[in-house]
Protein: Beta-lactamase family protein
Organism: Brachybacterium kimchii
Amino acid sequence: MSGGPAAGRTPGADGLGVLDAFGFEAAAIVLGPEGVRASAGDLEKVRPLRSVSKTLTGFACAIALERGAVALTDPVGPEGSTLRHVLCHASGLFYESDRVLQEPGKRRHYSNRGIDVAALHVARAVGRDFEDWVSGEIAEPLGMERLSWDGPPSVGAFAPLADLALLALELLRPTLLGPEVFAQMTTPQLPGLVGIMPGFGKQDPNPFGLGFEVRGAKSPHWTGTTSSPETFGHFGMLGTALWVDPVADLAAVIGTDHEFCDTHRELLPRLSDDILARWAPPAR
């Protein structure tokens, strides 16, 4: 990956000026298929990814799916729930426990526990510790040398933005997954379900892929007003985010040193819009 300095701005990073308005430490990398387009801030600081961890976990589960180790129809979670249900937050599981709110497939109930149950199922199927599976199948091939874990698969990853950008590049031009499984991972599963988007309230519909959030027509949202409905990624409650807009052929990773708050709700969409205005193709 071509890159910039550990701190400061790369040439032509004027589209990242919104970072200065956060009022606390903030950094970002903008990526096209060829590599880094621009960057600003500290790219080497190791950050808690929190729910951005779900992108790694969903990707690792998708690799097991493509290898034939698991199937989306495997029973996982509450009675009637499958691997697909738990990965797209439709199993009915509570946020962080095995409590069941309602039967699977009826509503999008965002659930860290569901993602963790999915990872446990995959680990058993491949016969490896899940962190080891992520390391061997994603981090090592992509060169994410500083990825580490100190918590469950749903929220426990840590990495600098420079490493997270390597994942974003892979998501722009996949090499570790074939097109069919990649599409399942990054497009709506069980579309049409209503649900609560953490930090943004009720969304109707509330699309999710397999471990990845899909933007759809959600409003309000943490991506931009000009982001395509096909945009996918995740944000974390400790101020880190990753999005890929396949229509614009752009990706971005963002990190701050502050818990998710009203400032993020206001400025993350503005940052996305500025990035798209500056670097998306003119025909967009």
